[in-house]
Write a structure and sequence with these properties.
The chain has helices spanning 3-24, 27-31, 41-60, 65-78, 80-89, 95-122. The chain has 124 residues and is mainly α. Helix 1 (3-24) crosses helix 6 (95-122). The radius of gyration is 15 Å and the shape is globular.
Length: 124
Amino acid sequence: MPMSDRSAHRLARLLATMGTAHFVVPRPFDAIVPRSLPGDARTWTYVSGAAELALAAGIALPRTRRVSGLLAAGLFTAVFPANVKMARDWRDRPAPLKAVAYARLPLQAPLVLWALQVSRAAER
């Protein structure tokens, strides 16, 4: 299997795992939904989980990988405010938990770049 396919399948697995987690254990995701979004936090949790599952399927399939990679980059960008909210909410937690919350912030950029790389590799 070419490296680009392996990378795409890893990204698809990550998205599928996180998407599934939104449905299996939604409470942690509900807690980081920005209050400025209209409606119920659980709805946003389920919508983002469904989006992650759809993108996982799209990235796993070579025919839809280019567009799905671009959309995944957009999703990773769109959920950044949730990571900011988590970091703000967790600033008074014990140091290890605070470190996790703060580490999520710069880790979002590599996810965006990874999704873009998967999309570009699919165009070849």
